[in-house]
Each structure stands twice: as structure tokens, then as C-alpha cells.
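Worked example (supplementary).
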Amino acid sequence: MLVIEDFGYKVIIGHGVLGKLVDALNPGASSVCIVADERVYSIHGQKLISCLPETMRVEKITFPPGEAGKTRQTKEFIEDTMLGAGLDRDTNVLSFGGGVTSDLAGFVAGTYMRGIQWTSVPTSLLAAVDASLGGKTGVDTKYGKNLVGMIHQPRAVLIDVDLLSTLPAGEVENGLAEMVKHAVLADRSYLSSLVRAGPMFTSDPVHSVDLIAESVKIKAIFAAHDIHDHGTRRILNFGHTIGHALELATGYGISHGRAVSIGMCAELWAAVISGLFESADLEYVCQALLNLGLPVSLPKGVSPEEILQAMTMDKKRANGRIFISLPRGMGKPYANMERPVVVVQEDTVLSALEKVAK
Amino acid sequence: MLVIEDFGYKVIIGHGVLGKLVDALNPGASSVCIVADERVYSIHGQKLISCLPETMRVEKITFPPGEAGKTRQTKEFIEDTMLGAGLDRDTNVLSFGGGVTSDLAGFVAGTYMRGIQWTSVPTSLLAAVDASLGGKTGVDTKYGKNLVGMIHQPRAVLIDVDLLSTLPAGEVENGLAEMVKHAVLADRSYLSSLVRAGPMFTSDPVHSVDLIAESVKIKAIFAAHDIHDHGTRRILNFGHTIGHALELATGYGISHGRAVSIGMCAELWAAVISGLFESADLEYVCQALLNLGLPVSLPKGVSPEEILQAMTMDKKRANGRIFISLPRGMGKPYANMERPVVVVQEDTVLSALEKVAK
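After joint prediction of all chains, the assembly is encoded as:
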């Protein structure tokens, strides 16, 4: 069992750490309100309940799985269910699920009676290494993802790797892409470790406590001291500007992990063209992604022009210039950590996209 | 013009301070989004617009006036209008109105793209001396008032007393009751000043810059260092536990100010019965309220039992005990500032209510 405190609260990682659940709750909690999607609750719900004392008041609120439910309406449904049950300010919200669940449950906790405590138990690799860390919460609107939300830190995050054993392969990919991102930003040797562990890791992330812990630590380097996302934290958008445009251009027909993988390659090409990144390192990263089963080129039928077009719908573009979070070399996120976002001209982005077109 | 910085941001009070509006906005703002109800905007909108530079992008979002519109639906309407207009994270929300508007606009700003800056220009006395100060924001649900919200501090509050000249008498009452509350909690001489200024004040609050400033300073004493409402700030609920029950019992057929006035008298009776407050001081406060045109006894047809019943719907009651924020004498909010909430037995509350019954 590993305990990482870099975020200002405990992130506990290991086998069976769900057994520590009671210690991760607010000691003064009058009750616990589990928030989970129906799929996760049907698989792991009984295990979770068995870790809570029988004397504790426990409410359970479930909703249909999937990003489509990450809306203000679902937030309202959860709030009204809590209010109807008479839950007070001393309630501890318990987020139990992937990124959609922690975004929703954390946001509900952040605004319930002007803010109550919450604890996060991620059940996907993406949530474990990224979404459940750093306090970003929110919901989607028809205008885009995560446009309404807030920063609300959990009081603890419990990463029980045994819960990750039931993940479908696509879910593992989503987390792996973020782990590679962390490696590129902070630590070349971590990328080598990921590649070495690759086949074992993708078949069963249960055996990878140390690799997950490393990713948590790297995220903390950038996110823990910039909770409002004005400075260093923005470098964590690396791979996501083009990745997000690719998701939009395909109508979310590609997984987030695969989109970010291709996005990282394209953005590194933009960095190489701009003289910020060594082409040998770019090749190393692309090869690592391939070895981990992640794609490095645009899917068939998606053109560079379409991706560029999709970027006009993104808040990171203004007046023909595109803002991209680019590292300046392996493990060198940016020479000046306070300015991790680089302005790139559209034609540079187009050239980079052509490099990753099939 | 007075500038009070006790909250950690500037509260500017005076005649014509709307002229300082540009200085109160975020210097890096890409645009300003005015949020106001239709009534306030129709009266003062042009004056506000004339204080903004012509070169600045200004969006305006209005909604029907009244507490009934302080809902998640109105919040969503404002958010979607902002998103549809393409407003980014560098937008400065400008709340222009009474307490309903600042609660809504501040909450929208707190969750728009995970939090953007806002500036508050109160146009009611209640908002000037209470609602716009301290960063409490939120909306109502069918389960009660302010049950969903957050603390989000404005970057500045501009109290232009000239905007208060068009207030109906009922609106002045709402603010006055909170000013009396501040006086009871912190400063006997301030209560005398209020009574002396009474007739002039109620006919036209425009002449009362110093009295408004004093109330702002007193609120800061309790609220500024307890932004999350766990300690000293709770004393500001004085008068509101019974006042809120009275609002509920009458189906909001009584103004907030009149309900709080009666609530303060009843709660002080509970304090006298409990040996926490001198009966001579209680008489002094009641006489002051009467002199200011505020009521000190229950409206006809409302019984003490009904009020007690309404308290069971309030989150401040548990297991036959009632939690009330009580001062321990004029200007002595509580001997131990960290524990401003007193547990009172139901029969004490009933006896106190009988004292204020007609």
C-alpha cells in the first residue's frame, strides 16, 4: 500500500485498500451518500457496502453509465434525491466509478448546501491516474465538455487496484494514454517502464501499483500547486487540444485514450516543426505508444482539415492562432513553468496533422 | 466615498461610485456580462451601460424579477446564453441588482468554465448591507432556499447609494432589519444612530453612506475570516431561525425584513429565558425596531405552535432540540466566538414565541 500526500490530501494506492474506506471518510459524517453509475454499482456495489459499518446511515444514488449522462440534469437528480432523503451538511459524498462519476459527484458535493466533503474511489484506470485527482469537477453542456463545474478537492482518494481487474480493454487504453502523457512531461525512464510492463499491464492493471503511483505523483507536480489552472497545470492539456478536436470531428466515435494518443503525436510534430522538441524523442514517444497498443496516426477518413475545423469550436483558439500546451523535450514540460501554453500558427498545426495522416 | 477592504476585496460606498466601475472589473477581462432582472435593468440599465467604455464587449442577460426565479433553471438559462455568445474564461460577470441577482450571478460565475471573476453592484439595501457581501451564492430548490450554491467571492462590490433612491418601502425594511441585526451583534451605539436616522433613512437611504458603511464593516467582522460558515459567521443567522420559520408558516406572505425583525425579538426572548441576555436590552432592541417601523410581534392568525411546526422543516433542528444563533448581550455575539450556535429546548422556544404573540 502506498500513500501519496502531494495533493494536500491522501491518495492511497494498493490491493484491497477499500478496506481503509472508513478512515477516508469525514469522522464527523452523519451519513454517507454513494454516487455511482448502474454498471459499476452492479459489479462492485456489494463489496463497497461491506466496507462500511452497519451502524452508518448509507444512501445510494445511481444513474445510467456513460458520458451522455454527465449533465446538469443528472446533477439536479442527484441533489434532489439527497435533499428528499434529508441529507445534511455533514454528509460525506462517496464517488464510486470512473471519470464521469467523479466529475458529477465532486460537483454535487461542491455545491450541496454550499459545499460538503467527498471521497473518491475510482474504478477506472483513467479516473485513478487522472480524473479523480486535482479536484476538477463538472458537467457537459450542448456547447462542449466540462463547461460548467468547479474545483472542489476530495478529502481522500482510494485507488484499490483490485477494482480495476474488470475493466474492458478500451478503458485501460484511456488511462494508459494519460500515463504516457505524464511520462513525456516528467520522466523518460517512467516511459520505458510503461513500455516494459506493457503487455502485462494492458491485460490486467491489477499488477501495477507502482506504475499507477508514479503517474499520481507526476500529476501532483503540475496540478497540486495550481489548483485553478492558470499556470503549470495547463501543461496537462498536452495531447488534448488536437485530441479533443479529433473526438469532436469523429462525433466521439473514438475513445478518449486513442484520441489523446494521436493528439500527442500531432502536437509533438508541431513542437518539432517549431523547434521545441527533438525529432528523435518524437520517434521514441510514437514507438512507445505503438508498443502499448495505442494509435499514432489519424483514423481512416478523417482529414487534417477536418481536425483544424473542429478546433474552431474549441475555447483554445483565437484569431487564427491556436494555443497548445507543449513540452520542450522529454521530461521538460516548459522552460518557464509559468507559461506552459504556446501559441502556434494554423499552418504549423496543419503541417503537423499531415505528418500523422495516413 | 468610502473604501472598505476587510473582506479581502474592495467594497466601495458613496454617491456616484458607479463611475468607478471600470476600476472594479478584471483588467484582463475580454468582455463584461451584465446579469440583472428586467425591472432593475429597465430602471438603471442605461446608467450602467454609460459607465462602461464603448470599446468593451458587453453582453446583457436579464430574467424576470422575484425570488421565484432563483432556480437551477435560471442559472442554466444564463449559462447557456453566455456559452452561446462564446464568452470565455476571461469574461467578468457583472451582477446588477438585489440579493436574488447577486446569488444567481455569483453562482453562475463560480461554476462557469470552473470559475470566472465577478463584480457586484447591489441595487437594494439588503444586497448592499448583506447579500452581496461575503461570497455566499446559490439558488433555491423545492426543498428550501439556498440549498444549492457555493462560496465565490466577488473581486469588488460597488455600492452606489444613488441607485437605492428608487426602492419601495418594503425593500428598505429588508435591509434595515439586517442593519439592526448587525447593531445588536456588535455595537449598541450603531443601533442608536440607526434609530436617530430612522425617518430620514426609511424615506431615502441615499443620505446614509456612513450607516451603510458601518453595517458592511460589522458583517466583515463575522464573515470575512469564516468564509465557509463553520464558526463565527453563523452568528449572522441571528433572527433568521425563527424568521425563516415565520416565512415558511405564512407561505412567504411576509417580507424577509419583517420576518427577521419578529424573529430577532422572539430569539432574544429565548435568550432572556435562558439567562443569556438582559431583559432591559431586549426592550431596547424591540423599541428600536418599532421606531424604525419594523414589527415586533407575530402577525394575526399565526400561532406559536405553527412557527414551531415550521421549524421541523428547517435544517437547524434535530431530535427535539433547536439550534439558534444567539448573542449574549448587546454587542456580545457569543462569549466563545467559535461556538455561536446555542442549543435550545423546544419548550423554551415555545415560551419565547408566546411572548411575541399578539
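Two points are worth noting when inspecting this output. Chain B touches chain A at residues 72, 76, 79-80, 83-84, 88-89, 107, 110-115, 136, 138, 141-144, 146-151, 228-229, 315 (CB under 8 Å). Chain B has a mean pLDDT of 91.
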